[in-house]
Each structure stands twice: as C-alpha cells, then as structure tokens.
Amino acid sequence: xxxxxxxxxxxxxxxxxxxxxxxxxxxxxxxxxxxxxxxxxxxxxxxxxxxxxxxxxxxxxxxxxxxxxxxxxxxxxxxxxxxxxxxxxxxxxxxxxxxxxxxxxxxxxxxxxxxxxxxxxxxxxxxxxxxxxxxxxxxxxxxxxxxxxxxxxxxxxxxxxxxxxxxxxxxxxxxxxxxxxxxxxxxxxxxxxxxxxxxxxxxxxxxxxxxxxxxxxxxxxxxxxxxxxxxxxxxxxxxxxxxxxxxxxxxxxxxxxx
Length: 258
Prior knowledge:
Layout: E1 2-8, E2 11-17, H1 33-54, H2 60-69, E3 79-82, E4 86-90, E5 96-100, H3 107-124, H4 126-130, H5 133-145, H6 160-166, E6 170-172, E7 175-180, E8 183-189, H7 194-198, E9 205-209, E10 212-213, H8 219-226, E11 233-240, E12 244-251, E13 253-255
Antiparallel strand pairs: 1-2, 3-4, 4-5, 6-13, 7-8, 8-9, 9-10, 9-11, 11-12
C-alpha cells in the first residue's frame, strides 16, 4: 500500500493507492497488523491535511464521522451514532462498539477511532469483512471527503488515471454543502461561480433541488444532484434567515479546484 500526496494550485488532494497482488483480500481474521497500522497513518495524515485546508469550514470530527459512515456503502446495516461524549458503531441491532469521543480537532485520536471501528466491522460484518482492503479504505475515504463537495478526492488504483482527468473541472454551481436537519447548509460559495453570481450566501439552507425536498439526504446524494453536465440547469429552493424562501435557477459551469 502506498500513500502519495499531490499538490494542485495550493490545495492538497489525499490519494491512497493500494497495490494488491490479488483481486480480493482475505477475511478480517487474517488481516495483517501492518494493514491497520498503515490505515491509522493514512487516516491521521488525511484528516490533518484536510483540516489544515478546510479547518474554518469542517471540523476533523465531522470528516472522521462521515468517513466511518462511508462503510454503509458496503453494509447498509452499519451505522454510526454520535453523542457529545461517545461514538458508537453498529453492525446489527445486537452488535455494537462504543468509544469515548475525542476532541474535535485531534486527528490522531480520531484516526485511532476509525481504525478500531474498521477492525470491529471487519470482524463482525461479513460484507465488510469479505470486501477487499482497497474497497474498505476507499469507502472510508470517499465518505470523509464527501463533505468537501469533491474538492478533495480519493482514488483507488483502478481510478487514479480517470480522476486525474477530472481535475480539469466538473459541472457544478460552486458551493460546498453539509447536510443539516432541515436540508443542506451552504458552507461556502466559491467566487465567480454561478452560485456566487446569483447571490447565494454561506449559511443559506437548500431545502429543495427541483421539487424534491433534500431533508435527510447524505453528502453523496447532494453532490450527485448538484453536479451535472456543464451548461445544464438546476433549480433549487433556499431558506435564508430573515428573508425566507428564495427560488434559483442556475446554469452549471465548469468548476475548477481553487
């Protein structure tokens, strides 16, 4: 397994390339210890790199929690429950593991929680346990960077070439979103993008995309809905404090990495 960091226009993209000798990895009972050691280093370094660039937008804790929730893409029974003092991972109604919640900005402590949850899930979920190491790590890092609206990307070995091409831009409106109770919070708006020019502001809440309410949507669903073909249109409804509801129709343009 090899860890590489690529720098583009002053921003870092964390890319983990796993070099495997077979199509799949063995069940978790024969995972080598160095896999989890390297996973810890990967998670800790990745959280640190991301938080240094996005610290004013997204806490390390949020990135780590969304990373763990990425395992739901492998086993939909896997759940992460968060309280102010604890983190609980569940692989079924009866099987769960609880950890004390670290400080929000402690990337090393959060990486340890992520590795412990990864070990537990591979031991108690057949779907996660039988998935290859690359698939598992990809799911975690995809979940983590989903908060960044695709401004940081993880690439599996088979997708590295394809994703290098994607760095030339994608069709979007230029917002970073975060799911909240009533929809999608606009965390930031990139300058000179369709959202910026239309007057969308940070702290606006997107309640609908088209006619569909986005309450309860996860990050990946929001990204898929907001991104699209360059030149295509997207309609959104926004709730703004004091002002109320505002309708927007925006033309997607090429969004480049800052």
